[in-house]
Write a structure and sequence with these properties.
Layout: E1 19-23, H1 27-33, H2 38-59, E2 63-70, H3 78-101, E3 104-109, H4 117-130, E4 136-144, H5 146-162, H6 173-178, E5 190-193, E6 212-214, H7 225-237
Parallel strand pairs: 1-2, 1-5, 2-4, 3-4, 5-6
Helix pairs in contact: 1-2, 2-3, 3-4
């Protein structure tokens, strides 16, 4: 990975999104198109992960959130689920040294409960190793659901209210946001879902309230640096009003 530079001359480096979130969709369809097993599609998807991390690091985007495994993904076959977590551990062991050398911090967003022990241990190792890095935050959404995150935040607030630490009339949007999984991250500016599916599938419902959405047809294993640059160029073409006048 190289230092910050202009990957695409069309990009205004003064108006980069602070937080890009991606629903990494299309691994299975990529595998079908290439007459491969689904697990090979997920393995190919690791290329997209590396590409967007490198691009965000080179451009200077502060935060990248990746939807890796949702609370609903447990409904998939046990074989596929186990393969996904084995692949995650394999990716960590293969990439973590370079991630750390490039001053990238790995963050976690989701529920620890239910994660396979090895996957949880490998992820905790990443979090600890990179916790002081400052160039880019890569937030992995694993065993994550937007509704679950809001429910967990509400539960923690209710527990504090029951303990007398806060009053019910003190609960507002700011307080709820402070109890999300990663409260120090800025809200999402640009949310991308690959493969052309036009839904966000329970991803970062609170943080993406004012995000710009993009739904490129590209399947995730084929999503490269240029695809991300194209998405940022489209983002910069839009007028973001946040409910203000046109």
């Amino acid at each position: 990975m190289k230092e910050r530079r202009t990957l695409d001359p069309r990009i205004d480096m003064q108006r980069l999104p602070r937080h890009i979130a991606i629903v990494m969709d299309g691994n299975g369809r990529w595998a079908e198109r290439h007459h491969k097993r689904r697990v090979e599609g997920h393995e190919a998807g690791a290329r997209g992960v590396r590409a967007v991390i490198e691009a965000c690091r080179e451009l200077g985007v502060p935060v990248l959130s990746l939807y890796a495994f949702s609370t609903e993904n447990w409904r998939r076959s046990k074989t596929e689920v186990n393969a996904l977590f084995r692949l995650m551990s394999k990716y960590i062991h293969r990439e973590i040294d370079e991630i750390h050398e490039n001053n990238i911090r790995v963050r976690f967003m989701g529920r620890w409960e239910g994660l396979p022990r090895k996957a949880a241990d490998d992820l905790r190792y990443c979090l600890e190793l990179t916790r002081n890095n400052t160039a880019l935050d890569v937030c992995v959404a694993l065993n994550y659901g937007g509704r679950a995150e809001l429910a967990d935040a509400a539960r923690r607030i209710a527990e504090k209210a029951a303990a007398g630490e806060i009053r019910p009339d003190e609960v507002d949007e700011t307080m709820l946001a402070a109890h999300l999984y990663v409260p120090d991250h800025p809200e999402v500016d640009l949310l991308i879902r690959t493969s052309g599916e036009m839904r966000i599938s329970n991803f970062m419902l609170w943080q993406a309230s004012y995000a710009e959405f993009l739904f490129p047809e590209t399947l995730w294993p084929d999503f490269d640096k240029q695809c991300l640059c194209d998405a940022i160029v489209e983002y910069q073409r839009r007028a973001r009003r946040f409910g203000g006048r046109t």
